[in-house]
Amino acid sequence: MSARQDDLVRKVAAEFVGTAFLVATVIGSGIMATNLTSDVGLQLLANSLITGGMLVALILTLQPVSAAFNPVVTAVEAFFGGVSWRDAACFAAAQVAGGALGAVVANLMFDLDAISISTRDRSGSGLWIGEVIATLGLVIVIFGSIRSGRTETIAFAVAGYIVAAYWFTSSTSFANPAVTFARMFSDTFAGIAPASVPMFLAMQVVGAGLAVVLVRVLYPAATLTQTPESVPQPSA
């Protein structure tokens, strides 16, 4: 195996593992919260804080290898030339597969069926606008940090944004196609019905596209100083 192939395998593995832990955290903390309290506000607070904490840990740990955990972030990076489209496809596949595994593991940890298709409808124009805003903000936070040369702050910036976006966006900030897809497989607090997924994915793409425009406007002379694989993401 060549050095490049070895490096690609390591990055794909990091994306798989990181996204699996992220989804397991989103779903698992939601289940735990509903087991401990019937107060929906407290459930969301616990879910958001725990997800933010895990994001800090995962990004700091995997950033030296690859830590995007999000197909739209990887796609934006490829658009800016930070990674090849071929490698981006490998990362996205690993993110989706890792997310699905994370959902299964979360279900099993709480003695639920390994796969239980969610019945939680999340549709409506308000939620769709929320997903555009959630994804737009996340991509700006990540690439703004990268282009300004402050990659050491990304773990905290991303985690802080996601915790806030759980609360200020109507959709509770999925902002991640891999996580959105995985959350179909858990009929719990964090789940999303399959019929609601396509529009969420479409709005995430729209949000990422708008973010690309804004990043170019805000940082016109900047170039990527570090690839977001060494940075990340997700959401919840």
From TrEMBL:
Topology term for the membrane: Multi-pass membrane protein
GO MF annotation terms: channel activity
Subcellular location: Membrane
UniProt keywords, alphabetically: Membrane, Transmembrane, Transmembrane helix, Transport
Major localization listed first in the record, in broad terms: membrane
Gene3D superfamilies: Glycerol uptake facilitator protein
Xref: InterPro entries: Aquaporin-like (IPR023271), Aquaporin_transptr (IPR034294), MIP (IPR000425)
Transmembrane feature ranges: 12-33, 53-76, 88-106, 126-146, 153-169, 189-215
Xref: SUPFAM superfamilies: Aquaporin-like
Highest taxon in the source lineage: Bacteria
GO cellular component terms, A-Z: membrane
Keyword Endoplasmic reticulum: no
Membership in a protein family: Belongs to the MIP/aquaporin (TC 1.A.8) family.
Protein name (Swiss-Prot/TrEMBL): Aquaporin family protein
